[in-house]
Every structure is written in C-alpha cells, then in structure tokens.
Structure to design on (483 residues):
C-alpha cells in the first residue's frame, strides 16, 4: 500500500472508531434500558439516536479544571494515554483481506501491548488527582492489569500456535480452511473473553472505578473533555477486544454473501452486545475474589490449554 | 529512511533516560522511564525487529514498570521531599556519570571502528528465535527462570513475616 493510501485509511479508521464509540454509548444505554425494563435515552433524534452527539457537545462545553494540589502534568497526560494506545492498537487489525493500516507480523502481540499500556492512564490519573478514592482505584487497576494481562496473552496463544503466525490476516486465513477457532479452542475463547472484559475495564471487572465504593475511582476528579477521553478510551478498548476476539476465534471477516468488512462489523457488534448483556446481568465480585480467580484458576487453565494445544500441534506436524 | 528513524528514536530514548534520572519527583521519573522504553520499542520496530518491539512494550512498559508503580505511588511527594531529592541530585550525579563514561566511551569508540552498525530492515521469524532460545540457550533460560523463582520465594517469605505479626 502506498503512503497516501495508508494515511487515508488510518484517518478513515480513526474517524470511524470515534463515531462508533459514540454510537456504542447510545446503543449500550438503550440496551441496558431494555434489559432493566426501562426506556433509556429516547428524546434526542429518532429513538434517541442523537443522544451521543448531544453528550459530546455537552462534554466539550464543560469546564475542565484540575483540582487544587493536583500534579497538573500527570493529570493532563492521563486522559491522552487512555485513548491513544487503543486507537493505535486498531492500526494492526485486519478488517478485510488487505484492509489493514499496518500489516505487522506481530499484530496480536502489538494489540496486547497497547491494551497493557492503558493501565498508565488510570495510574497516572489516579496519582495526579491527589484524591484518596482515585488513588485506591489506581492501585486496584495496576494489580488487576498484572493479574489479567498474564493469562490474556496465554489464552490466545493456542490460536497463534494453530495458525503459526501472530499476523491478524494469517490467523483469519487459517480458520477459513478449517473450523473457527472457537470450536477448536473453546477453553481459550472463554478465558480470553474473561481477560478481555478485565482488559477493557468493563463490569463486572471494573473495580477500579466502581461507583458504590470509590465514587468513580481514578476518574473521580475529571470532567469535560478529559473525562470524555477516558470514556472514549474505554469504549474503544471494548471495540478492540471485540475485534481481537472476532479475528482470533470467530473467523474474522469470513462470511457468506455480505462483503467482508460488513461481516467483521456484525461480529464485533455482537460481541459488544454480549459485553453490555454481561454488564446488566452480573454483579461485581469482591476484589480478593477477582485477583484470586485470575492467578489461581484462570492462569493454570490457560497454561493447561496451551500445553494440550502444543501436544496436538506437535503431533500433527510432519 | 528506517535507519534515520531508528537513530531519531534512539536519541529520544536517550533524552528520556536522562530526564528519568534527573526528575526530583519519582512518578515523573517513571513517566520518563516508560517514554524511554517505548522509544526503544519504536527503535526496534523501525529496524524491522517487530517481535522485540512488541515484547518490549508488553513486558517492560506494560508489566514491569506497573509493578514499580505499586511502591512508588505511596512515596512522599511533599515539597521537603522534592528539596531533599534536588540536593542529592546536585552532588550525587558525579560517580554514576563517571561509570557511564567508562563504559560508553570504549563502546562508542568500538562501534566507530566497526563502521555504521545499522541493520537493514528484515522480517523476524519467531520460530527461529524460539529454536535458539530452547536449543543452544536452553540452559541460560533455565538458569534465569531459577533466579526468578528464587526471587519469588524470597518475596513470599518477606511478605509472610509481615502478615504473621
């Protein structure tokens, strides 16, 4: 791909992601409303669809001031760090054959690294705000990231082993010959999904910002566009995890009749809906249960899954 | 082109490393350390070693420094603490700087003799890397893992003593 085409594609992906994140906030609120037997936002535009535009305008217009005693440099840096890595992570996602900004041979690892970097936003935001609730949220975020990132990587290694490549396109191609990896790697898929919820900091794994005990955790002191950037980062992280799940386990862009990017979007949308459903259905675990589950249950299971997959892959190899 | 990009990333990494050492507030130092590690990762990407780059981001910038954060977030950042740290930095830089010069001067001189050591971009095969790590270097890997296990048990021992009291 030429430089101009790459630049155009990256701008298009960026704009599409920001709009998609906005629409996702509206869709989530409507779906949550439906699941909780209430209406949700339904006033602005048809079915309340323009609610996210109204929210964006409101957030841009709001004052955005650091609290007294805050470390302004860290406080200002944190929201940018929340949004930038996940947006960069989409740079290696293959939406269709050849439709990828940077076809990196380590695509999956790159996305994992970008997801790991989002912890900095929370930790710096928490530390910079000089607020005890924020600080507790930041410490929780750091511990949770270490616990869940460890088996996030291990749970998807089975797919990488079967495909023989970290490149997104190769992994999708490997599933076109046989079955989707969700059928071959069901345990890996479940573990990856759990780790993905934690990596995107979504309920039930959002203890770093749980409203009931920490006000809003690391986001307590934020308002206006800084708050909006944190939100953008969170929703794009969900989209990124869903895109990764689609690529690794659901055959990526593959599907009959409809064009490839449409199939990719449909699958990502379905995974996002599952995220919202889980948010409505599940309570938060206690914090020690959360960390204990990651280290004592999920990590050994992910290692076992990798071991068995390795045996099979070596047995199949000539 | 990629050689220039790599040199630029290396210069940024060096500048960030200097800032990481000289900041009086430890969390700011950590931010610059992460910036230095990420610039190094960008350097790897520019040289075509994307596996090393991705692992650098994931393990160093993502995981290892996040462990530092645990300790560092509870460190005193009052005005007195900043003053103390500035005092230390005012005189304390001489010996480490001397050590760096002792190592860096022969290293740079050696590179200069050997000509420009920039590698042309090339694809990395994680398979051949794995074969190296688990073939000729298997013993080194095992020794390193033994060291990590010892560190883990040490940490567990220290932590348990606190809980029992």
């Amino acid at each position: 791909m030429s430089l101009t085409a790459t630049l155009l594609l990256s701008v298009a992906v960026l704009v599409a992601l920001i709009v998609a994140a906005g629409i996702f906030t509206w869709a989530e609120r409507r779906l949550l409303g439906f699941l909780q037997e209430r209406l949700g936002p339904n006033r602005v535009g048809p079915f309340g669809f323009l609610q996210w535009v109204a929210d964006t305008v409101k957030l841009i217009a709001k004052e955005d001031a650091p609290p007294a005693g805050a470390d302004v440099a860290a406080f200002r840096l944190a929201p940018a760090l929340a949004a930038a890595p996940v947006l960069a992570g989409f740079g290696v996602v293959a939406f269709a054959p050849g439709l990828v900004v940077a076809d990196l041979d380590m695509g999956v690892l790159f996305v994992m690294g970008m997801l790991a970097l989002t912890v900095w936003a929370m930790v710096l935001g928490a530390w910079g705000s000089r607020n005890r609730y924020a600080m507790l949220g930041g410490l929780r975020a750091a511990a949770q990231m270490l616990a869940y990132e460890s088996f996030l990587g291990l749970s998807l290694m089975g797919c990488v082993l079967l495909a023989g490549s970290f490149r997104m396109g190769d992994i999708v191609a490997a599933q076109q010959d046989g079955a989707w990896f969700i059928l071959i790697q069901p345990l890996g898929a479940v573990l990856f999904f759990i780790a993905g919820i934690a990596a995107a900091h979504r309920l039930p794994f959002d203890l770093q910002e749980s409203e009931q005990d920490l006000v809003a955790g690391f986001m307590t002191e934020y308002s206006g566009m800084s708050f909006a950037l944190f939100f953008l980062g969170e929703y794009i992280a969900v989209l990124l995890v869903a895109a990764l799940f689609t690529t690794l386990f659901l055959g990526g862009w593959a599907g009959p009749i409809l064009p490839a990017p449409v199939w990719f979007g449909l699958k990502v949308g379905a995974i996002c809906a599952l995220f919202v459903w889980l948010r409505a259905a599940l309570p938060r675990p206690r914090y020690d249960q959360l960390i204990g589950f990651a280290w004592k249950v999920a990590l050994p299971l992910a290692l076992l899954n990798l071991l068995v997959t390795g045996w099979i892959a070596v047995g199949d190899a000539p | 082109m990629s050689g220039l990009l790599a040199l630029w990333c290396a210069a940024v990494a060096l500048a960030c490393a200097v800032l990481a050492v000289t900041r009086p507030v430890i969390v700011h130092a950590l931010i610059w350390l992460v910036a230095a590690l990420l610039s190094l990762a960008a350097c790897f990407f520019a040289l075509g070693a994307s596996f090393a780059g991705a692992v650098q981001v994931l393990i160093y910038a993502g995981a290892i420094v996040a462990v530092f954060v645990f300790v560092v977030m509870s460190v005193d950042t009052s005005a007195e603490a900043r003053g103390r740290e500035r005092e230390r930095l005012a005189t304390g830089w001489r010996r480490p700087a001397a050590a760096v010069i002792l190592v860096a001067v022969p290293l740079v001189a050696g590179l200069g003799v050997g000509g420009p050591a920039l590698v042309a971009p090339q694809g990395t095969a994680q398979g051949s890397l794995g074969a190296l790590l688990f073939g000729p270097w298997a013993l080194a890997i095992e020794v390193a893992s033994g060291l990590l296990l010892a560190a883990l048990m040490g940490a567990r021992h220290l932590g348990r003593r606190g809980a029992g009291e």
Notes: Chain A has one domain: 3-316. The first helix of chain A runs from residue 3 to 35. Residues 3-316 of chain A form one domain.
